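Could you please review the protein record set out just below?
***
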Amino acid sequence: AVDLVESGGGSVESGGSLRLSCTASRYSASYCMAWFRQAPGKEREGVIVIRSDGTTRYHDSVKDRFTISQDKAKNTLYLQMNSLKPEDTAMYYCAAAPTWRVTCANASLRPGDYNYWGQGTQVTVSP
């Protein structure tokens, strides 16, 4: 098992930037990692996934604006969010799945494919 703790959320104006962090309790190379978000009244959706080999997959709505990265020495996953829009407002969650699962082979963005979740960090973007 792995524990995940997110941080870095906050309130920004449209066009602003935020960087979210997710610190894992175990070596991150054992897992593929992803960011999800859930807005009030909406289903949780996958934003970005990164596999242990560094390959990534992005939701179309965040391409060219969001970037995922890892610092394996610190067991930390980052989500750099630029050009934020009001529709990016949501609770953002970090998630992980063991690398042997098909979740990672497929670079899945489906919430049900992930085993471990953080508590979330709120991002609010005002017009």
User: Anything to note?
Assistant: Helices lie at 102-105. The mean pLDDT is 93. The chain has one helix and eleven strands. The CA atoms of residues 11 and 124 lie 5 Å apart.
